[in-house]
Design goal:
5-stranded antiparallel sheet; single chain; 6 helices; alpha+beta; 2 domains; globular; 35% strand; Ribosomal Protein L22, Chain A
């Protein structure tokens, strides 16, 4: 069972990350899907996506949940029947969940890719990173920013929420492993604590809703 890492954030918040090394057949063993989820799985053309889907169910099992305990709202946001907060992510050969009985949470895993340099202006003021001359360092930092904003979006899930205009990530160093983020929407501010770590060419960011006032 390739559970890559478990992070105990607090007594009520945990992160679980899975490295997907098994075949689809291996991942399917012992997993019981509801008819809608079975249909969803069968409709996935990519084997990588199917393996990611199944690995998430193994992560749920670590927390004592089955597929039937999970449902999605009209915006595609996952929920657990017992009202525990949950967020889910999958990228290539890594998947992850964060669960919390205390506060809304979000998680995102992203592969570190050169492509992010071309799209960075769409989600963050790229001029703020002009002092970073090393392209690899810039890719790593921008991947954190993207993952952090994705995590906040998963918490908020409001239609029309702009990564560029409504979500701000406080500057940070890679060594710190944490930062803060703010969502500004309809005249209201929401503050979040964000943690991040790197996993073999990938970046995981997870966010907790907090009041910094």
């Amino acid at each position: 069972m390739p559970l890559y890492k478990t992070i105990t954030v607090s007594d009520t918040i945990r992160v679980h990350i899975w490295e997907i090394t098994e075949s689809e057949e291996e991942l399917a063993r012992g997993i019981f899907l509801t008819p809608p989820c079975q249909q969803r799985l069968e409709g996935m053309k990519s084997e990588l996506h199917r393996r990611g889907f199944l690995s998430i169910r193994h992560l749920l099992a670590i927390e004592g949940y089955q597929d039937k305990d999970l449902y999605y709202d009209s915006l595609g946001k996952p929920h657990l029947n017992d009202r525990t907060y949950i967020s889910i992510t999958h990228s290539y050969n890594f998947s992850g969940i964060i669960v919390s009985t205390e506060m809304p949470v979000g998680i995102d895993i992203e592969k570190q890719r050169e492509k992010i340099l071309k799209i960075a202006h769409k989600f963050t003021p790229i001029e703020e990173y002009g002092s970073l001359s090393d392209p690899l360092h810039l890719i790593r930092k921008l991947t954190v920013v993207w993952g952090a904003k994705e995590s906040l979006y998963k918490i908020n899930s409001t239609l029309g929420l702009s990564f560029l205009n409504n979500i701000n990530i406080e500057d940070f160093t890679m060594e710190e492993g944490e930062t803060t983020g703010v969502i500004t929407l309809n005249g209201e501010l929401s503050s979040f604590k964000i943690y991040f770590l790197e996993l073999a060419g990938f970046t995981c960011a997870y966010a907790l809703e907090q009041d910094f006032s």
